[in-house]
Structure formats: C-alpha cells, structure tokens
Specification:
L-fuculose-1-phosphate Aldolase, 13% strand
C-alpha cells in the first residue's frame, strides 16, 4: 500500500495546481473513490490507503498540535472526521475525556451514521453535536472543538455582537472565517446546543452565507471544514483575531463596508 501523504506530495511537485488540496476536499466532502480518480487523471494504478489509517493518524496529529500550542489543555476539546462511504462510512471521533495531546489511533471511536459505536473507546459526549454539524453542512469533513483561551475569555468579557463575536478586523478574518455567532451557555454535551447550531446554520444559509464556526458561551468554538487542514486554519485565524480584539481593549475599528465589499468581489468572501 502506498501512503496517501507520499502520493499527494509527489503529485503536488509535478502539477500546476495543488491536487493534495483538491483531493482531500473531494474525499471528505464528496466521498469520491481516490484510487479511481488518480487512475483516471494521472494514470496511477497502485492501491492507496485512504481511510482508517490515514484518518486516524490525521486526528492524532491534529490533537497533538492543538495540545502543544495551547489550544486545548487537560482532557478538553474533541475532534471528529467523516469516514468515506467506501471505507465503511460514519465518523471517527476522539474518546470522552481523552487528552488530545496523547491520542492513540486505535482508541479513536468509530461510529456509524446513526451514532452507534462500531469500535474504539467510548465516543465523546459531544458526538450528537458533531453529527448534527455533518448533517447541516454536507461539505464538512472535519469538526474541531477547543477551549481556546482568548475565545473563552472573550465570552467572559462580552462578545462584540451575538451574531459576530468579534468584528471584521482583518481581511483574512473576513475571507477565512466569516461570521461566527454566539451559542448561549448550556451544560457540556447538552443536546440543545445542536438545535441552536442548526438554527444558526440555516439562518446564514438562507442569506447565502457560509458558516464555518460557532462559539459556545464559556466553553469554546466549534469549527468545521472540508478537511482537517481547513478546520485548523479557520480555528487559528479565529483565535488570533480574538487575541487582537482583546489586546486592543475591544476598541479597534472594523473594516469599512467598502473594504468588505471589495473582499466579496475579489475573493468571494462570505460576509
């Protein structure tokens, strides 16, 4: 078996566009058969390992990175990924009360589409919320939840607005994150969070806007993306913008409407 990461690096070096990004987007969101795609596009016929090993390793890699950089601590936070249908479907999610910095690939909980456990340690108590995100956002391939310090601090001091926890301070926040509404406080794992999140997603979809994250009051962000890398990028930009807002004593002026309109027209920003 040829490792997916090796092949993607090989293709990236020999093609004008980045097939690694294209491929992972399709694997996680459209659940395409990677081997078939590579054969049709690149003439590759070697078997490729795409699912459990790769996905489990990705979850553990992300968890370790989040832990080492202080996005999570102790046993806080959780990560899940969508498993392609050709590899059994369902989702992989970190176990309940697991430390993200010391995850074991084989211990990750594998559940089916209905949330019934297939293997691994007991799934995180936020499984219902993750499944609701995947249901509401069909393109989501990964969900990340952290207790990021600056974002939690922001909810303690008071967010900018219930529909936007921080203002559009920078162009990359507008382009890479977009609107992030606040979800009222509920007990960790409360199913009502999923209902509020679904309502928020529907509200923004009705306006033609893409929602990539919500902020749970006093707990932390729920961030999703087509790939683990996309979810991580959104989380990082969100936390850094909260840091800027707090460091400026919450007084910095947002981008002008003209500046935001230019981002819409030039970069298709969803704002």
């Amino acid at each position: 078996m040829v490792r997916l990461t090796f092949l993607l690096k090989r293709f990236s070096a020999s093609h004008e566009y980045d097939p690694a990004y294209l491929h992972l987007e399709q694997i996680f969101s459209a659940q395409l058969n990677l081997s078939t795609y590579l054969k049709n596009v690149y003439g590759m016929t070697q078997p490729i390992q795409t699912s459990n090993t790769f996905l489990r390793d990705e979850v553990c890699r992300i968890g370790k990175s989040l832990f080492e950089r202080g996005y999570v601590h102790g046993s806080t936070g959780n990560i899940s990924v969508r498993v392609p249908a050709e590899q059994g479907g369902g989702f992989l999610i970190t176990p309940t009360d697991a430390c993200l910095g010391f995850l074991e690939p084989d211990a990750l909980a594998w559940v089916n589409e209905q949330g019934q456990q297939i293997s691994g340690d007991r799934a995180s108590k936020t499984l219902a919320l993750h499944r609701r995100i995947y249901s509401c956002v069909p393109t989501a391939g990964c969900v990340v939840h952290t207790h990021s310090s600056y974002l939690v601090d922001l909810t303690l001091r008071g967010v900018w607005h219930p529909d936007d926890i921080v203002p559009p301070l920078t162009p990359y926040y507008v382009m890479k994150v977009g609107h992030v509404p606040l979800i009222p406080y509920f007990l960790p794992g409360d199913v009502q969070v999923a209902e509020h999140l679904a309502q928020r997603v529907a509200q923004y979809q009705a306006r033609g806007l893409t929602l990539r994250a919500v902020m749970c009051d006093r707990l932390g962000p729920q961030v999703w993306g087509a790939t683990p890398a996309a979810a991580m990028a959104t989380l990082e930009e969100l936390e850094e913008t909260a840091k800027l807002w707090l460091r400026g004593q919450c007084t910095a002026q947002p981008l002008s409407e003209a500046a935001i309109q230019a981002l819409r027209e030039t970069f298709k920003a969803s704002w």
